[in-house]
Amino acid sequence: MKGESEPRRHEQQGGSVEAHPLPSERTRQIAVIGSGRCDEESEAWRLAEEVGQRLAKAGVVLVCGGGGGVMEAASRGAAQAGGTVIGIVPSNSPADANPHCTHVVSTGIGYARNLAVVASGEAVIAVSGEWGTLSEIGHARQLDRTVIALRSWALRGEGPMESAPGIVPVASAEEAVAAALDAV
Q1: For the domain that residue 59 is a member of, what is the CATH number?
Q2: Residue 65 belongs to what domain range?
Q3: Which tens digit of pLDDT belongs to each residue from 64-84?
Q4: Which of 160, 146, 174, 182 is nearest to 31 (CA)?
Q5: CA–CA distance, 158 with 63 (Å, rounded to integer)
Q6: Is residue 59 in a domain?
Q7: Residue 11 has pLDDT above 60, yes or no
Q8: For residue 178, what pLDDT is reported?
Q9: 3-state secondary structure of 17
Q10: Cα–Cα dist 12/132, whole Å
Q11: How far apart are CA 162 and CA 160, in angstroms?
């Protein structure tokens, strides 16, 4: 079962000690990715904001890149619904995060932070998106994370990648959150 671990023995000078098995009480985390350049009047913004609200109401921590556009919309939706938002920014300054992030991780590693964003979510919801979103989708699948594609990239491949395994296309924010919660 997820979150449970077997006791382990730790060797130390003078004998061994059994580790105490504590069930994980960590809150579920779902990453939301998408273009940093959509504006408040766009469909992508509206969908991302609703995704954030629904994730917060489900008691899930939202993880994102901490910037504007889809990231800010999802963050705002989650924050307004009383949720927790972790923004993982590419710069070395927490001040670069959007104002709705309740926790900020400043990486100083530029776009390489895309890997940290998707690795921090147990599932990933892609809303719309550009090239950075496509890289995050690739990283997420490499890590075996399910990607929920809400009006995002339509992918196909050859051979075992023909059906874009692990990518779940959806049409609404409600479907996106439900599919992400089913995946974790």
Answers
A1: 3.40.50.450
A2: 27-183
A3: 999 999 999 999 999 999 999
A4: 146
A5: 31
A6: yes
A7: no
A8: 97
A9: strand
A10: 46
A11: 6
